[in-house]
Design brief:
The complex is a heterodimer of chains A (444) and B (178). Chain A is mainly beta and 444 residues long. Chain A has helices spanning 2-18, 59-76, 101-107, 152-168, and strands at residues 39-42, 53-54, 57-58, 80-83, 111-119, 125-133, 138-147, 176-184, 191-198, 205-206, 214-219, 225-230, 237-242, 248-250, 257-263, 269-276, 279-286, 293-294, 302-307, 313-318, 325-330, 337-338, 345-351, 358-364, 366-372, 380-381, 388-393, 399-405, 413-419, 425-427, 433-442. Chain A folds into two domains: 2-168, Rossmann fold (3-Layer(aba) Sandwich), CATH 3.40.50.10070; 176-442, TolB, C-terminal domain (Neuraminidase, 6 Propeller). In chain A, a hairpin with a 2-residue loop joins strand 2 and strand 3 (57-58). Chain A is globular and about 70 Å long. Chain B is of the alpha+beta class. Chain B has a single domain, classed as 2-Layer Sandwich (60s Ribosomal Protein L30, Chain: A), CATH 3.30.1330.60. Chain B contains five helices and four strands; from the N terminus they run H-H-E-H-E-H-E-H-E. Chain B has helices at 3-20, 60-67, 85-100, 118-138, 163-169; strands at residues 73-75, 106-111, 146-152, 171-175. In chain B, strand 2 (106-111), helix 4 and strand 3 (146-152) form a beta-alpha-beta unit. Classes of the chains: A mainly beta (444), B alpha+beta (178). At the A-B interface, strand 15 of A face helix 4 and strand 3 of B. Chain A: The Tol-Pal system is composed of five core proteins: the inner membrane proteins TolA, TolQ and TolR, the periplasmic protein TolB and the outer membrane protein Pal. They form a network linking the inner and outer membranes and the peptidoglycan layer. Chain A: Part of the Tol-Pal system, which plays a role in outer membrane invagination during cell division and is important for maintaining outer membrane integrity. Chain A: Keywords: Cell cycle, Cell division, Periplasm, Signal. Chain A: InterPro entries: 6-blade_b-propeller_TolB-like (IPR011042), Tol-Pal_TolB (IPR014167), TolB_N (IPR007195), WD40 (IPR011659).
């Protein structure tokens, strides 16, 4: 794959340099390649066949905004160098399905995204999305999305997902949401609020008002609920928050502190940790309530945990050996075995939705985010800062978000993301400071 | 006791702590009670809940005055939750006050420094609070009078990112709820 992409990069460069005509290597990008230059992809404003007003603005304005969101997604993936919508030539509506290839070849773009925004008689929008190989002068994919005008961003994310998937061969991930903890105020009186946003930081919404400290949210697989830790009434316990109704309920009644909650991939179980008399163990309980089942029973701190995508196994953290290390067990608590053996400590394991990797925080001096295989092999560190922790996976298992804490009296936290090459690292914009990001699956 | 003598007790306790060079003594102490410098204020700035001249028996202010400033807590080494001789002396004083105020319930808050992951630190804070509670129980204080809660690294006492700040933040604090 790497060779193919390098070859492509070379060919692309050659095309730019010589203005050569069609070549027959299909366009593709490799998410694991760190050396190749990003593919240049033109994203002009999407025209409208007839300007119409919607609750989200005119179709003409939306055509520009959709293109901006598509270009932003492609840029954040780290694989593409989008050009536009500002500064590239305007496209007429008939041209959307009949690209002016020669003009785009002259611009140096390897790929071209065109589309349109149309208001339908029933009040819905249709957003068309087309991907072209400029050198081969061929269409690579086309998609159409019918959405309510207020959901225009989802159409844009789906368009970007279609382009990403077609060119990388990977599963899509842009049309998804993040829950995280919004933070403000001084370190010793920090206000922490539960908040949600789209994968690009848009449609931001606070879910709690900050009166009680909240931590460590996780989406249910259907996005209808968030399980998290709240200090309501100074009793730290885990709650399930229903996003539709705004109501919440205690997951399990106990005089002991419960924390570190997780949903199972099928949403039927909630994994959590409970501290009893200085000893923390991992439990699971039906998402509908009932009797909890204890999964670990060694002395020490067993905490956190993350299910494999098929729900059969759980990777968790334990200091039973004297330091925090990663362990894997069957989902009923059997067959516990250690998988991390490098120097330092390991914490906050999260199993990739693809199943192939476990992300973690490595503590060895600084706190760094890394990945290893579920049997402990192939350890790679992806970040290097004073304190990066708590990785969460994109729905396709190719990008990781985490939070970064800065030092000192005015130190704060921010949400970041990095891809598996470790090269494409960037901060996710949030209105306040942020921590504990959790990335949900692809939206249903 | 009037507010002037209360202030003197607090300052004396602070001086004793500073001079004591205990291995884990906080380098920065909580501020002394507010004074306008004339000695004429009536203690209205008392942050510990005392009203005017009166310290309500069994209150947080009474607890801190009795056990001594800064002795409402014990401090821990990195990743440790063990209680040493110095900690036991502090907890003995707390136990004596709890024996003298048998109807008071307390919360023991466990904390960790910022150099740990969030969820592990929640567990570690509980371990530390539980260490203090277990010792108090061994001194005759009923477990039913003690509520253990962990704040992990979420509520630091000292805001810096250095060894002395972290030393103050690895703590178990006994608090009389208002």
């Amino acid at each position: 794959m790497k060779t193919a992409r390098s070859l492509l990069a070379g060919l692309t460069a050659a095309l730019v340099a010589t203005g050569a005509a069609a070549q027959d290597t299909p366009l593709s990008v490799d998410v694991t390649d760190t050396s190749a230059e990003d593919m240049t992809i033109a994203v002009p404003v999407m025209p409208t066949p007839a300007v119409a007003n919607t609750v989200a603005g005119t179709t003409e304005a939306l055509g520009r905004q959709v293109a901006e969101v598509v270009a932003g997604d492609l840029s954040r993936s780290g694989l593409f160098r989008p050009v536009g919508p500002n500064g590239v030539r305007a496209v007429s509506f008939p041209e959307v399905t009949a690209p002016a290839y020669d003009a785009w070849t002259a611009s140096g773009a390897a790929a071209l995204v065109q589309g349109f925004v149309r208001a339908n008689a029933d009040g819905q929008l249709t957003v068309g999305c087309y991907l072209y190989d400029v050198a081969l002068k061929s269409e690579l994919t086309r998609q159409g999305y019918v959405v309510a005008p207020r959901d225009w961003r989802r159409a844009a994310h789906k368009c970007a997902d279609a382009i990403y998937a077609r060119l990388s061969g990977e599963s899509p991930f842009f049309d998804s949401r993040i829950a995280y903890i919004a933070e403000s105020g001084p370190k010793n009186r920090r206000i922490k609020r539960l908040a949600i946003m789209d994968s690009d930081g848009a449609n931001h919404r606070f879910l709690t008002n900050g009166q009680s400290t909240v931590l460590t949210p996780r989406f249910s697989p259907d996005y209808k609920q968030i399980v998290y830790l709240s200090y309501i009434e100074n009793r730290p316990r885990i709650y399930v928050y229903d996003i539709g109704t705004g109501r919440q309920r205690v997951v399990t009644e106990s005089a002991n502190q419960t924390f570190a909650p997780r949903f199972s991939p099928d949403g039927r179980w909630i994994l959590y940790s409970m501290a009893v008399g200085g000893n923390t163990d991992i439990y699971r309980i039906s998402a509908n309530g009932g009797q909890p089942q204890r999964l670990t029973n060694t002395p020490g701190i067993d905490v956190g945990g993350s299910y494999s995508p098929d729900g059969s196994k759980i990777v968790f953290e334990s200091d039973r050996s004297g330091k925090q290390q990663l362990y894997v067990m069957d989902s009923d608590g059997s067959n516990q075995r250690r998988i991390s053996f490098g120097g330092g400590s390991y914490a906050t394991p999260e199993w990739s939705p693809r199943g192939d990797l476990v992300a973690f925080t490595k503590i060895a001096g600084n706190f760094r985010v890394g990945v290893m295989t579920p049997d402990g092999g192939g350890e790679r560190l992806l970040t290097n800062s004073w304190q990066d922790e708590a990785p969460t996976w994109s729905p396709n298992g190719r990008v990781i978000q985490f939070f970064r804490t800065s030092q000192g009296r005015s130190g704060g936290s921010s949400v970041w993301q990095v891809d598996l090459t470790g090269v494409n690292e960037r901060r996710i914009p949030t209105p306040l400071e942020g921590s504990d990001p959790t990335w949900g699956p692809l939206l249903p | 006791m009037n507010s002037a003598s209360l202030k003197i007790v607090a300052i004396a306790a602070a001086l004793a702590m500073t001079a004591g060079c205990g291995k884990k003594a906080p380098k920065e102490l909580p501020p002394a009670p507010v004074s306008d410098g004339t000695g004429a204020d009536a203690g209205t700035g008392d942050p510990n809940g005392g009203v005017g001249d009166a310290v309500v028996p069994g209150s947080q202010a009474d607890f801190v005055r009795t056990v001594g400033q800064g002795r409402d807590r014990i401090l821990f080494e990195t990743d440790s939750y063990s209680v040493d001789a110095e900690d036991r002396a502090v907890l003995d004083a707390q136990a004596a006050w709890l024996q003298a105020n048998p109807n008071v319930r307390v919360t023991i808050e466990g904390h960790a420094d910022e150099r740990g992951t969030r969820e592990y630190n929640l567990a570690l804070g509980e371990r530390r609070a539980n260490s203090a509670a277990a010792y108090l129980q061994s001194r005759g204080i009923s477990a039913s009078r003690m509520n253990v809660i962990s704040w992990g690294k979420e509520r630091p006492e000292s805001l810096g990112s250095d060894d002395s700040a972290w030393a103050q933040n690895r703590r178990a604090v006994t608090v009389v709820p208002q």
